[in-house]
Amino acid sequence: MPLALTHPASSAMQTTAAASAWPATAAAADAELTRLAELLAEAGVAAVPAAGVLAAPGLAAGPADTAGIRVRTTSNPPHALYVIAAGRITPHTTADSAFAHLRPLIEAAARPCDGCGAEACEPCNPFCLPDPSND
After folding, report:
1. Which has the closest alpha carbon to 93: 85, 59, 101?
2. Is the Cβ–Cβ distance between 92 and 23 less than 8 Å?
3. Sheet strand arrangement including 48-50
4. Which of 4, 35, 85, 113 gives 20 to 30 Å between its CA and that of 54?
5. How far apart are CA 133 and CA 123, in angstroms?
6. This prediction's pTM
7. Is the peptide bond between 78 and the residue preceding it cis, with omega within 30 degrees of 0?
8. What is the DSSP letter of 77?
9. Nearest-angstrom CA–CA distance, 36 and 49
10. 60 φ, ψ to 5°?
11. How many CB atoms lie within 10 A of CB 69?
12. What is the CA radius of gyration of the chain?
């Protein structure tokens, strides 16, 4: 079944809709990165800001993730917040979207691990296998 476009390609409506979805400039993407740092701080997650990148070394995508989470912007379009976790890159248009993506990891980090016995907010043993009864 063919897809119907709401607006013809290259129309003013489609160009405006596409442009408004992503940060328009690198500065706008950096502002979203700053907002994400604020959201993470409010959630109690330590984040280390640098030029165009925000690192949350204590936040992991899973037991084997020893690198932590990073969020990066680019100086070239498409400007976005790129969440890098466990070798996967996920683009987000806003800090709120990136934070919603990270929320389950933040909540998981706040609980102790039944698999390896790590305390809440402490990293799991890299070879930890989660308890299948908790799925």
Report:
1. 101
2. no
3. 48-50, 53-56, 69-72, 81-85, 88-92
4. 113
5. 20
6. 0.67
7. yes
8. S
9. 10
10. -115, 150
11. 25
12. 18
What does the block give as tokens for 11? Answer: 């129309």
Dihedral angle sign, alpha carbons of residues 52, 61, 113, 39: positive
Residue type at 105 in one-letter notation: L
Residues in the chain: 135
3-state secondary structure of 106: helix
In this structure, are residues 53 and 62 in contact, taking their beta carbons and an 8 Å threshold? Answer: no
For residue 89, give both structure tokens.
């890159």
CB atoms within 10 A of CB 99: 22
Q: Could you tell me which residues are beta bridge partners of residue 48?
A: 55
Task: Give pLDDT tens digits for 36-73.
Answer: 999 999 988 888 988 889 988 878 776 666 677 899 99
